[in-house]
Design goal:
By secondary structure, the chain is α/β, with parallel strands linked by helices. Helix content is 29%, strand content 30%. It is built from 12 helices and 20 strands. It has helices at 44-53, 70-77, 95-106, 126-137, 182-194, 203-209, 229-240, 285-296, 303-306, 320-332, 355-366, 384-387; strands at residues 6-7, 11-19, 38-39, 42-43, 58-65, 86-90, 113-118, 142-148, 153-156, 162-166, 172-174, 178-181, 215-218, 243-260, 263-266, 269-272, 275-277, 335-345, 373-378, 391-405. The strands form 5 sheets. Strands 1, 2, 5, 6, 7, 8, 11, 12 and 13 form a 9-stranded mixed sheet that branches. The chain has a 5-stranded mixed sheet with strand order 17-14-20-18-19. The protein starts with 5 loop residues before the first strand and ends with a strand. It comes from Neorhizobium turbinariae. 4-CDP-2-C-methyl-D-erythritol 2-phosphate binds at residues 254-256, 280-281, 302-304, 378-381, 385, 388.
Length: 407
């Protein structure tokens, strides 16, 4: 753990992010839980978690998820810094049970204090976190970020008529992260569970029930909780205004020797020939070059890092597997593949009769239209190893557009 996370007699602030809900009000079940739906090109949880991962004072982070959502969580959080700081645990049937599970997981770390935050509040900022932390520094056992209620409040009756106007003086809307001394809130949650109390609406109310004084801190009007489908749409629109295109071009080069055989595979097309390409897989030099080009756009190494030739499971494997893997890595990082271009350098066999099928194979594998795929071929004018029919080379270029927030 970094020293900057430690202040005030070794006070260490751990984080519990509650992400085990199902989010029924935010859309159809087919869309999945709201914390994994995209806003601004990334899942809600990714935005939320990033704010805590990058906050200088955050210590260990516990994310509480639904037992069925592990793959969704892994996809949503790929690429985040310091993954070793993040502990994943499973929640219960209610938010209260999920928070208790998160606190119990955090109690196994060196954290002395905890911030409990809703995954569906992706617009939390470091200024709010700093204000809450300052109050913890001063010795407050519980801190609640709030914003004053500004709307006029009415109490209605069963008859649909207004019974009275409620004074908004001293009324606040509660936000998260709600923050506490870890031992205090863990004890309060455990006592509430043991007593059969499962009706608390937030962690501050459990602290109040347990007799802990709760200090109010200034929250933020931007720190909204995404609840219904319209909230998701507004959040996506807000983030999209602060996204600039990030166009990246990757290049790949590969070469394979020719040896006696019955044909070569290029761009997924087998072409009968009196020679074949030598390689651990099917030796599709074109797809190998294009795989490297895609990996280059997101700094993911090269084909050998992901599919080492020393691994026997790839012996004779179709190179479309490699290209599909690279395309998925690009998409997982928010990239959109817009163009793929392959140039083959060979004296033989003839490529032109197979070009359209090659382009179709690229389009199908990458999930783009055929007009975004190009395959070309040229000879080496009898010069060098290509000119002597000793091998075939390929040069590939991939263009990918990523979304990048302006921060």
């Amino acid at each position: 753990m970094t020293n900057k996370a430690m202040t005030n007699d070794h006070m260490l602030i751990g984080i519990v992010i509650v992400a085990a809900g199902r989010g029924e009000r935010a859309g159809s079940a087919e869309e999945g839980p709201k914390q994994y739906r995209p806003i601004g090109g990334r899942p809600v949880l990714s935005h939320t978690l990033k704010q805590f991962v990058t906050w200088p004072r955050s210590g260990p982070i516990v994310v509480v998820i639904h037992p069925e959502d592990r793959s969704l969580y892994d996809d949503a959080t790929s690429g985040l810094h310091d993954p070793q700081r993040i502990i994943v645990t499973f929640g219960g049937a209610t938010r209260q049970q999920s928070v208790l599970a998160g606190l119990q997981a955090l109690s196994g770390t060196s954290a002395t204090h905890v911030m409990i935050h809703d995954a569906a509040r992706p617009f939390i900022d470091h200024w709010v976190l700093d204000r809450v932390a300052t109050m913890l520094d001063s010795g407050a056992p519980a801190v609640l970020p709030v914003i004053p209620v500004t709307d006029t409040l009415k109490r209605g009756g069963n008859d649909g008529l207004v019974q009275e106007t409620v004074s908004r003086t001293g009324l606040y809307a509660a936000q998260t992260p709600q923050s506490f001394r870890l031992s205090d809130i863990l004890d309060a949650h455990a006592k509430a569970a043991a007593s059969g109390r499962h009706d608390f609406t937030d962690d501050a109310s459990i602290a109040e029930w347990a007799g802990l004084p709760v200090t109010l801190a200034e929250g933020s009007v931007d720190n909204i909780k995404l609840t219904v489908k319209r909230d998701m749409a507004m959040a996506d629109e807000k983030l999209s205004r602060f996204v600039v295109p990030d166009v990246r071009t990757g290049n790949g080069y590969d070469v394979h020797q020719l040896e006696p055989g019955d044909g070569v595979t290029l761009c997924g097309v087998f072409i009968p020939h009196h020679l074949k390409l030598s390689g651990h897989s099917d030796a599709d030099v074109a797809l190998h070059a294009l795989t490297d080009a895609l990996l280059a756009t997101c700094g993911a190494g090269d084909i050998g890092d992901h599919f080492p030739p020393t691994d026997m499971q790839w012996r004779g494997a179709a190179s479309t597997i490699f290209l599909e893997h690279a395309a998925k890595l690009v998409r997982d990082r928010g990239g959109v593949i817009t163009n793929a271009d392959v140039s083959l350098i060979a004296e033989a066999p003839k490529i032109a009769p197979h070009r359209d099928q090659m382009r179709k194979n690229l389009a199908d594998t990458l999930g783009i239209t055929i007009d975004c795929c190009s395959v070309k071929a040229t000879t080496n004018e009898k010069m060098g190893f290509v000119g002597r029919n000793e091998g075939i080379a390929a040069i590939a270029t991939a263009t990918v557009v990523y979304r990048r927030s302006v921060e």
